[in-house]
Amino acid sequence: MMQILEILISGITQGAVYCVVAVGLSLVYGASRILNFAHGSLYSLGGFLAWYLVVGGPGLPLWLAFLLILPVLALTGVVIERAIIRPLRGSDNWKINTIMVTLGLAFIIENGLQLVFGPGTRTIPPFVEGSLSIGGITITWYKLSIFVISLALVGTLELFLSSTRYGQAVRAVSQDMQGANQVGINVNQVFSTTFALSVVLTGVAGILLAPVFLVSPLGGWAPFLKAFVIVVLGGLGSTKGAFVAAFILAVLEAFVIFYIGPSWAMPAWLLMLIIVLMVRPKGLFGVWEN
To answer: Which UniProt keywords are given for this protein, alphabetically ordered (predicted)?
Structure first.
């Protein structure tokens, strides 16, 4: 029984970080119907920026590097939307073109990281050491910290979307872009904001997981694939669905890794996705309609 609880806790703590990555991808798709294939590369970018500030450069504390990187990630999201995505919107086959462009952007970011930092992997020391033992169950303070930070980020985003005027504008654009434009909502500004938030979220996940996993220039594809499966399972465009699906799949992954092996984790995810889509083709919580 104690072993099962430890596996469950491990899955839940991992699920919080998966949730941050997936919610960012879901947010952009929900607002603009854009599937950003560079999402995983931006995850790696966040990890490498943190590594440079903490280990490879000025040697800042991780929490300070974290605060300095946030505006950089937000600005990166705005630049991507305005310089790369916005010119494509409204053209013929713009959704397919956007996929191709963001896929190319992913390769550019990956190669840029390799040129600047080299092809090797990096790691970052956690900002808190030690572990907590309760009733025979042990969890590191760092994993507990990233669990709390991840939930705080997702909770703040959900509060922003549901309780603020600007958040309601984002929801309005996601539901009816033309109608939102007609009532005076600046649709382009909403797109820039959602991209900025999305890049911040995935970059933050890269920073939080850097002390746990190695940071690699090519390491963004696994987080992207997992985020994509989570978003589809939860319902394309549904941040609530991404939240629930992230924890379901993370707990499933924890049990599969422990009882069968790590190589079976992704097949188990895909099997779960197939089963759910057979019953609910739109995912657990449907989609936002334009």
So the answer is: Amino-acid transport, Cell membrane, Membrane, Transmembrane, Transmembrane helix, Transport
Q: Which residue has the tokens 């590594």?
A: 51
Amino acid (one-letter) located at 177: M
The answer to whether the CB of 241 falls within 8 A of the CB of 66 is no
CA–CA dist 55, 63 (Å, integer): 13
Query: Residue 228 pLDDT > 50, yes or no?
Result: yes
Q: How many residues are given for the chain?
A: 290
The DSSP result for 49-112, as a single string, is HHHIIIIISS---HHHHHHHHHHHHHHHHHHIIIIIIGGGTTSTTHHHHHHHHHHHHHHHHHHH
Instruction: Please state, in angstroms and rounded to a whole number, the distance separating the CA atoms of residues 67 and 215.
Output: 19
CB-CB contact of 249 with 229 (8 Å): yes
Q: How many CB atoms lie within 10 A of CB 8?
A: 14
Q: Residue 1 has what pLDDT?
A: 67
Segment 6-38, tens digit of pLDDT:
888 888 988 988 999 999 898 888 888 888 999
Degrees (nearest 5) of the Cα angle 270, 46, 70? 120
Average pLDDT over residues 203-229: 89
Let me know: does 11 contact 252? Beta carbons within 8 Å.
yes
Q: What is the pTM of this model?
A: 0.89
Contacts (Cβ under 8 Å, ≥6 apart) of 200: 24, 70, 73, 74, 77
